[in-house]
Amino acid sequence: MEWAAYFDERTETMPPAWTRRLEEELLAEQVARCYERAPFYRRKLGEAGVRPEHVLNVEDLRRIPFTTKQELRASQEAEPPLGDFACVDPVEVVRVHLTSGTTGKPLVLGYTAEDLRTSSRIGARAFWAAGARPDDTLLHCLSYSFYTGGLADHGALEETGATMVPVGLGQSRRVLELWDDLRPTAIFSTLTYPLYLAETAQEEGIDPRTLGLRKLIVAGEPGGQLAATRRRLEELWGATLSDTYGLSDVWGTLAAECDERDGLHFSGPDGVLVELVDPETGDPVEIEPGAGGELVFTHLAREATPVLRFRSRDLAEILGVECPCGRTGFRFRVAGRSDDMFRVRGVNVFPSSLEELLRERGLDRFAIVLDRFPVEPPVEILIEGVDGREEELTEVVKARLGFTCVVKSATLPRTEAKAKRLYRVYDGEERPT
Amino acid sequence: MEWAAYFDERTETMPPAWTRRLEEELLAEQVARCYERAPFYRRKLGEAGVRPEHVLNVEDLRRIPFTTKQELRASQEAEPPLGDFACVDPVEVVRVHLTSGTTGKPLVLGYTAEDLRTSSRIGARAFWAAGARPDDTLLHCLSYSFYTGGLADHGALEETGATMVPVGLGQSRRVLELWDDLRPTAIFSTLTYPLYLAETAQEEGIDPRTLGLRKLIVAGEPGGQLAATRRRLEELWGATLSDTYGLSDVWGTLAAECDERDGLHFSGPDGVLVELVDPETGDPVEIEPGAGGELVFTHLAREATPVLRFRSRDLAEILGVECPCGRTGFRFRVAGRSDDMFRVRGVNVFPSSLEELLRERGLDRFAIVLDRFPVEPPVEILIEGVDGREEELTEVVKARLGFTCVVKSATLPRTEAKAKRLYRVYDGEERPT
After folding, report:
1. Would residue A238 be called left, alpha or beta, if left means φ above 0 and alpha means ψ between -120 and 50 degrees?
2. What is the ipTM of this complex?
3. Domain ranges in chain B?
4. CB-based contact (8 Å) between A74 and chain B?
5. B342-427 — its CATH code?
6. Segments of chain A scoring below 50 in pLDDT
7. Considering chain A, what is the average pLDDT of its residues?
8. Average pLDDT of chain B, as a whole number
9. Which residues are within 8 A (CB) of A230 and not within 5 positions of it... i.e. 6 or more apart?
10. Which residues of A touch B161 (CB under 8 A)?
11. A298 to chain B nearest CA, in Å?
């Protein structure tokens, strides 16, 4: 069957000037609502001398100070569960998700029934771009506990019309046992899962290519946009691979690759406004091909726990502002994420743990090179100003974080050097020296 | 806050004559639809010489032969995934759930978007009767993988307006860690889970009664209606306990106790028609206080995979046809279920395994006495015609099923004696000798 090219053509192919107009209308409403209902934002705007009626466009928005995860956490510690940035009465909240942060307490993020509909709509556009269609039978293999990758993404995937099979984490043998009964054509999972599932199949003498899985949609692990990784998984399964991007603090999945596989498109112009900023100074960075910076998010349609100018600590590179697919949202690649865990031979590594270890030693600018998949030791770590202490650090990393690395001194490119906390996925030749 | 007494007053307090009229209207539509779209039902009606236009009321419905799980399974084996009893095109199916059967393959049950709305509506009435309200923060602690207890029940609970926390199986330590951040007031889980959670709290020096959990809503294990079990859990938590009933083959949760705690009410008069039949002969049993029999279900509003006269193998006892709560659906207790697993000191026991073992020895009428909670060995098993072989059977059960039992010869009461396959929960003094 020939399906539509877009889940929501009007929104996804809107001329940029229309998108701006839509954003501005929603922005004014959202800021007014936050000011009126949330002491947290009243304080924040008040301290900056901004009245909500002043915020009519993206330029005005920049007068509002950033919101950090630490501030939101402090707000929730003072007033559990949702903090004083929540804009609704608790009885209006029908679900909470947690952020999967590794340092400190998770954030508790609320959804009204309307927020769930918005989340599903934004996610459905992304998953449709990534290939999900009503004639797919789609295995959802992320954990359904707590995080948006579970129920929020399930809701979005279901909205595409695909036949959803709730699987959850693990269960690769069970999935293979049920294969002939379910005949899945698509999977939504971490990047690692299809690899592991293929190995399990091979152990049982089954060639994964014969199983009829045509679409691998992945999330939550670095490397989904690396050419070599993509090629490997696509060959293993005889399927296409599409990467997606989301963060629990904002929405679930809110960006995905289209058929061009040349960058992710944001899918929620009516749900979230995206800014790019210099990760050190916070100055705005213009969104144009080749630009890089930290993603900053402002909800345009969140009722329960909205964020204004939320510092994601995720770094993006703009690959282009046009796309043959017809979507008018810019294309980007995730250059480094602050929260993503990666695995080295069964050891879970959180970049934030490495960061902590380096900061104890007065080092705060580093990049982890993750250009192979699965990640194999030794993992290359580039650190500014580490000269002469490479061996000591290799030992400390092994002892405290449990994996073998090679530490190299390097001058990191401008964008990364300015970011105090980040790790970065390097593809091919662009690695700094 | 004072909440409404019912989730859906009009439907739940409908005079029985109105309910019958509603059932009849929906029944005629559903049977016509099944006949038109599903070869499985066209064969079944054809063999019985019934035309769909003949089926205008419950008496007519009895001319249609029963549907068994074996027939549905055979249909799906011949035409995976949904079998030829499915009534929609696969692209209309947005989710599948599996049945949790222990023998043979699970059934794959489909839901259209409309089916999910029906499921949520039926479940929400039941969960509201069981106490869920918009000002609750509710931990959902059943597995989200595959079965209706996960996503289908989550959807129904969310529909009540309660703030849902997706937890999933296990995680009792994590739940306690997050307690102060989330402040849950209600839980939906197996009967065992709150007991285990209380023990975990006590190990950490916390009295569960201080945690503010006010409502325990339970499912999927025998014993939720046993007075002693209820008392024990209610005292442990300083909370009320409400039992619920559902089966994946039909809908998720579709019956629950109300505030009277004197039997379960079915909550889906617009989604499922309930018959009571003699488990041996299949003859209709009138629904009146004191009556007992096997529950037989006919969908009234299922689009994807409807069942007509589905033999549940679950035994019910009618406790009354009126209730001070005002709900007009009869009150029943689940006297025995065919699929429920129970645990004896960490060993999972499926009654169907015991059944198999007994049938190999020419014994087919038995009851397992589960009147303590948690179940402690030795477990009492009553078997008709076992005289002289008690010791042999005790050994076989230990060797093959892994638990210690006491086998007794008994004459089982009429209802149970006639059921070939069943186990039964006995409360207090009513145990047969």
Report:
1. left
2. 0.86
3. 1-338, 342-427
4. no
5. 3.30.300.30
6. 415-422, 427-429
7. 90
8. 90
9. A224, A241, A261
10. 91, 94
11. 24
